[in-house]
Backbone:
């Protein structure tokens, strides 16, 4: 019989659905953000040969998140603008809930959910699968290709004297901002950073190329970009 879930139980069951998936994994969630843990779980599933389908409705994926997803085989991304439902299932178990994918590690929200299995609640299970299939049917496929970086022309011997880019990336959130190694944050992230003013606080993104890199206010670009643009 179906089980009622609160916040903790919901995240627990969603995580188990991902871990236990053997052939199929479907994640329906308007908001999608790829945390490190979540990405690793997806990667494991894709390596096990599980067919993963993600349906989402707010295209706020960062270039690095898209690039990470593009590296997974067996993964399909579908975009459906009017999506409001949240539902997660593998070939056997399902959670229907208020919880968005990226919130499954957040413990402060109050969520509710229902857990059901194909064996014990087969009618409900089939209906939810049919509804998901209908959503996928009218959704857009999002081809997963590596996001192109606007770095200007890359010449073969770009090792020195390259022209500095005009646009850069916020080293915390990847938003596009003017290139300026004195100001490698967007406004919002700068205000957050300013609370502590720690020049060496570790950030994740290179201000110049937008790729993942160990950066900070003091060293906002990756080593390659430093050699190329700042030396
Ligand atoms: Zn930012
Ligand atoms: Zn770089």
Residues:
């Amino acid at each position: 019989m179906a089980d009622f879930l609160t916040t903790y139980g919901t995240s627990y069951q969603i995580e188990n659905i991902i871990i236990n998936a053997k052939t199929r994994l479907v994640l329906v969630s308007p908001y999608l953000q790829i945390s490190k843990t979540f990405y690793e779980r997806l990667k494991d599933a894709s390596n096990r040969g599980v067919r993963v389908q993600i349906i989402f409705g707010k295209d706020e994926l960062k270039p690095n998140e898209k690039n990470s997803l593009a590296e997974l085989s067996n993964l399909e991304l579908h975009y459906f603008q009017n999506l409001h439902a949240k539902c997660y299932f593998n070939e056997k178990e399902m959670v229907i809930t208020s919880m968005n994918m990226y919130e499954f590690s957040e413990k402060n929200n109050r969520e509710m959910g229902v857990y059901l299995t194909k064996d014990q609640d087969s009618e409900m299970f089939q209906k939810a699968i049919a509804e998901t299939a209908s959503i996928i049917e009218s959704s857009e496929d999002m081809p997963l290709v590596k996001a192109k970086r606007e770095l200007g022309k890359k010449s073969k011997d770009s090792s020195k004297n390259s022209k500095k880019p005009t646009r850069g990336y916020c080293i915390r959130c990847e938003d596009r901002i003017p290139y300026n190694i004195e100001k490698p944050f967007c406004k919002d992230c700068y205000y957050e950073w300013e609370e502590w003013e720690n020049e060496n606080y570790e950030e994740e993104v290179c201000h110049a190329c937008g790729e993942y890199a160990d950066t900070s206010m003091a060293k906002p670009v990756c080593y390659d970009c430093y050699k190329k643009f700042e030396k």
User: Anything to note?
Assistant: Residues 152-158 have pLDDT under 50 and may be disordered. The longest helix spans residues 122-137. Residues 97 and 197 are 39 Å apart (CA to CA).
